[in-house]
Amino acid sequence: MENMLKCAFIVLWVQLGWLRGEDRVEQSPQTLRTQEGDSLSLNCSRTVSSFRGLQWYRQDPGKGPELLFLLYSAGDEKQKERLRATLLKKGSSLHIEAPKPEDSATYLCAVQTQCSPGTCRLYPNPETAALE
């Protein structure tokens, strides 16, 4: 029987810049449990009219966000140890191979946009996502 990892992942998204009304950034899944030896994927979908880049961050309790990956073009893929981020045409995925308890953190997807003053507004996150 596999050992259940005692770790929690929290996924949130952050929007950098201002968004037009039809622009959206969403992360999934909202809740995730994993077992030792399994891998997991976090997804970030976007419909942003003036996309300039996508970032993945990790935030440990009581600390500020730490930049993991910065992606600019569809097809970009970056890896850091067991973490791998891929940028797709309308989103991104963050894969964690064989997660360990020390991977427990808040993971944030951020999209950088560009717009003219008066044409954009901040789009609030409707809900937070927790991964356990």
From TrEMBL:
Q: List the keywords (alphabetical).
A: Adaptive immunity, Immunity, Immunoglobulin domain, Receptor, Signal, T cell receptor
Please name the InterPro entries in this protein's record: Ig-like_dom, Ig-like_dom_sf, Ig-like_fold, Ig_sub, Ig_V-set, TCR_variable_domain
Query: Which spans are transmembrane here?
Result: none
- Listed PROSITE patterns: IG_LIKE
Q: Which domain of life is it from?
A: Eukaryota
Query: Which Pfam families does its entry note?
Result: V-set
Gene3D superfamilies reported for this sequence: Immunoglobulins
Signal peptide bounds: 1-21
| Domain Ig-like residue range list | 23-112
Q: Which PANTHER family match?
A: T CELL RECEPTOR ALPHA VARIABLE 1-2 (PTHR19343), T CELL RECEPTOR ALPHA VARIABLE 21 (PTHR19343:SF13)
Protein name listed in UniProt: Ig-like domain-containing protein
Q: Which organism is it from?
A: Rangifer tarandus platyrhynchus (Svalbard reindeer)
